[in-house]
Design a protein that fits this description.
295 residues; alpha/beta; two-stranded antiparallel ribbon; 11 strands; elongated
Length: 295
């Protein structure tokens, strides 16, 4: 059997990035934390933590962390439902969310949930193609992802579509694309890209015969600043129509690639556990997504 005091110490070290902070959270000495981790590693028979700065869980440690989070959620249900006791302490639930969802419809998802429950969310940001890996690695209990297929031990709920349009200010379009969205102009006009893992621009420009690296790029890893830079005429880029509905209506931003858009289908993935907190999260994500995302 696993000693859950040791497992709690392990989780605290990983979640807080080090032994000293874990000791503060657990109200014990740093040496006591280290001892619990050593005993747990001896019990498992494998290294669980890479002693770096910050510390990182090994592959085995990541699996164990996911196990601990599942047990914690089930333990909450035991007290709140089976024994009829009310748990006043908060429970932190880590979720993986892509930046564009966080900038648009996610706040509405969380508003009612977080004001009526004892849930605290620990939001882990990642591209909609990458959040799936967070769930697979046990970093989160659920995620918003563009991956449609459920992984083993998890369930999937379709949320809806996020539509991206290629936008710029009218002045930017007139300056850089007076003859339309042609290859010569694309090779000169600065484009906005979220980060170096974002393939949306490469996919779009490949259709125009432009290869990756052939166009000047601003890297802007913040959804709100991304839109702000576009509105200031500093570049053009792919933006969720949901995020710029007013700007499109008043023509502060205009589509510059005629009849071109990218549709990203989003899914909610979570552990296939019938715990109250996971069910509440799933219900909230599904309910609000229906109000904001295209079907």
């Amino acid at each position: 059997m696993i000693d859950y005091k040791q497992l709690e110490a392990f989780a605290a070290v990983v979640e807080n990035g080090g032994f000293e902070k874990a000791a503060t959270v657990l109200h014990i000495t740093q040496s006591a934390v280290s001892q619990r981790i050593r005993l747990l590693e001896d019990r498992i028979g494998a290294m669980l933590i890479v002693r770096s700065t910050p510390v990182q869980p090994t592959a085995m440690g990541q699996k164990l962390l996911g196990h601990y989070k599942q047990v914690s959620l089930m333990e909450q249900d035991l007290f709140e439902d089976t024994l009829g006791k009310t748990v006043e302490e908060y429970i932190t639930v880590p979720v993986g969310i892509n930046a564009d969802s966080l900038a648009t419809w996610i706040p509405d998802t969380l508003q009612e949930l977080l004001t009526t429950t004892n849930i605290l969310v620990d939001i882990r940001l990642g591209d909609q193609d990458k959040t799936h890996d967070m769930l697979k690695n046990g970093e989160v209990v659920g995620c918003v992802s563009s991956q449609p297929g459920p992984m083993q031990g998890c369930k999937t709920v379709y949320l809806g579509k996020m539509i991206y349009v290629c936008c710029a200010t009218p002045d930017f379009a007139e300056k850089w694309f007076p003859d339309g969205f042609i290859p010569d102009a694309v090779r000169k006009a600065p484009i906005l890209t979220y980060d170096r893992t974002d393939e949306m621009n490469n996919e779009m420009l490949t259709r125009c015969g432009i290869r990756a690296g052939e166009f000047p790029t601003h890297y802007v890893p913040d959804s709100h600043m991304f839109v702000d830079m576009c509105k200031k005429g500093l570049g053009y880029g792919m933006i969720p129509s949901l995020q710029i509905e007013e700007e499109l209506r008043n023509k502060q931003l205009i589509p510059i690639v005629e009849k071109y858009s990218v549709t990203v289908r989003l899914y909610w993935h979570c552990w296939n556990l019938q715990t109250r907190h996971i069910m509440m999260l799933t219900d909230a994500f599904e309910k609000v997504a229906k109000l904001h995302l295209s079907r």
